[in-house]
Amino acid sequence: MKTEKMIFLVIGGVTVLALFGILFLSQSEQKGSNTSGITSYSKSQSGKPKAVVVNLSADLGRMKIADEKSAEFVIENSGSGLLQLFNISTSCDCTFATVTINNIKSEEFGMHGKSSWVGELKAGEKATVTAIYKPSIMPVSGPVAREVYVGTNDPDNPKLTFTISAFVE
Q1: CATH homologous superfamily of domain 51-168?
Q2: pTM of the entire structure?
Q3: Which residues of 97-125 are buried (b: 16+ CB within 10 A; e: fewer)?
């Protein structure tokens, strides 16, 4: 009887520890998603920001594996609310991004990085997203497409995707 109780207690203890571990990891992931301090708006709300992008893609042309090329994309806030940019990431370890607002350049963002960076655009202001492709990090040849992702608090455009393409020789 004592052995059965001991087994039950050990299994119960392991189960409780596993649940606490899962809870801890889920809290860590939520902190990494960087949604604190972001103002949210509904689609029907007035006074909201509006992210306007003219070009979502750029062709870097032909390049060698040792080359590094970049393309710039402009985001304009044509709404009346404060537009916030956050959770910037890329689709590959060979692709990086920066955001420049009012001549101030952000840190460099990549595929796996977590950042608390938030950029803010007042009505009428613009940001420049620079997508940087470095094929030497993950060498491939032929046609390539990579993406840069930018989260926004514009309810009509919560995630912007910028695509760069190239032909690597």
Answers
A1: Immunoglobulins (2.60.40.10)
A2: 0.79
A3: bbbbbeeeebeebbeeeebeebbbbeeee
